[in-house]
Design a protein that fits this description.
Elements lengths: L1 H11 L3 E12 L2 E13 L4 E5 L6 H9 L7 E10 L2 E2 L5 H7 L4 E4 L3 H4 L6 H11 L7 H14 L16 H12 L6 E5 L7 H18 L2 E6 L2 H7 L2 E6 L2 E7 H6 L5 H8 L48 E5 L2 E4 L9
Parallel strand pairs: 3-8, 3-9, 6-7, 7-8
Antiparallel strand pairs: 1-2, 1-4, 4-5, 9-10, 10-12, 11-12
Helix pairs in contact: 5-6, 5-7, 6-7, 7-8
Length: about 325
């Protein structure tokens, strides 16, 4: 009975938690406020979709988790990142090297630049295994593991001695997935894993990540601007704008819920609709605000068609909450909370 209770508690505890995280860059005397108070919880065997336009702070959030922010310009000003209840920000560089790649891994955004052009793909997968002394295996066993990983992502093992330039974009992405999964991490951060891939390869890559998640029990943060990918692969969704999460909830909350942040509505309206006879897109007016000069009040207010006077001077708190669904917007002040 005690073991059953312990297992239930472990399963209910988030494997990764971001608590009021602030990440700012310093450049030429300016403070670039890239991430502003992000909080989210990733459960075990769960996939969270982190969505938003370019410049919303999604990749910076991921790099903060991996502790790969540039030392010269970036700083975590406030908040914490907890992995299995332990603060990653209190880990030494050596401790983070042991965690990064082995327990928490990342598929980087651009396969064209993420792979080393002068090393074979097999050597790059082997590097991750060697650094983490994967299960204390011999060299022959590690080489067999490289072949196994290549086959797992749909690449013939005989290609292990080829270089990145000999692979297509989709195949490079598969190699990056093999590198990320080499040590069977508990958390996988996939940063735009289907960018610049044709739709057929996109579908294959997403199916591969889902299959590996089921096989390995991995928890996933899927960073994307594509709501179709979110609907297909995610359990929960967090919508980011100007460095903060302005709406989050389950996939059902976001795709089927009655209430949404105006920005989320704008994202949905930007998707082509087959039943729209006008065949026109409805883009969000304006541009993402300058993170070095964010507007007072709600950061979305300059682009919002429903902007009120209060929106221009007061930053909204979470003003709508129903179950797991939360929205930061003055439109819902006085509503369900």
């Amino acid at each position: 009975m005690e073991d059953m209770t312990k297992k239930t508690v472990e399963d209910s505890t988030p494997i990764l938690e971001l608590d009021d995280l602030y990440v700012h860059y310093r450049s030429e005397g300016n403070i670039i406020k890239a991430v502003n108070g992000v909080s989210l919880k990733l459960g075990r065997r769960e996939t969270i979709g982190l969505v938003g336009e370019t410049g919303a702070g999604k990749t910076t959030t991921a790099l903060a988790v991996m502790q790969l922010l540039p030392d010269a310009t970036a700083r975590i000003d406030r908040g914490d990142i907890l992995y299995n209840g332990e603060s990653l920000l209190r880990k030494s560089k050596g401790e983070m090297r042991a965690i990064r790649g082995a327990l928490i891994s990342m598929i980087f955004q651009d396969p064209m630049t993420a792979l080393n052009p002068i090393k074979t793909v097999g050597a790059q997968i082997m590097e991750s295994l060697t650094i983490h002394n994967y299960e204390h295996k011999s060299k022959a066993e590690l080489e067999a593991r490289v072949d196994e990983l290549l086959e797992l992502v749909g690449i013939k093992a005989i290609r292990r001695n080829e270089y990145p330039h000999q692979f297509s974009g989709g195949m490079k992405q598969r190699v990056l997935i093999a590198v990320a999964l080499a040590c069977q991490p508990q958390v996988l951060i996939a940063d735009e894993p289907t960018t610049a891939l044709d739709v057929t390869i996109q579908a294959q890559v997403l199916a591969l990540i889902e299959e590996l998640k089921e096989k390995l029990g991995t928890s996933v943060i899927m960073i994307t601007h594509d709501l179709g990918i979110v609907a297909q692969t995610c359990d929960k969704v967090a919508v980011m704008y100007a460095g903060e999460i302005i709406e989050d909830g389950s996939v059902e909350d976001i795709f089927l819920g009655e209430h949404h942040h105006p920005y989320t509505v704008g994202l949905f309206n930007s998707i082509p609709k087959l039943d729209d006879e006008s065949n026109r897109l409805h883009p969000i007016d304006g541009l993402m605000p300058d993170p070095a000069n964010l507007p007072p009040g709600c950061p979305f207010s300059p682009r919002c068609h429903q902007c009120m006077e209060i929106c221009t001077r007061e930053h909204p708190a979470i003003t709508y909450q129903k179950g797991s669904h939360r929205i930061k917007c003055h439109l819902f002040a006085g509503g369900e909370g």
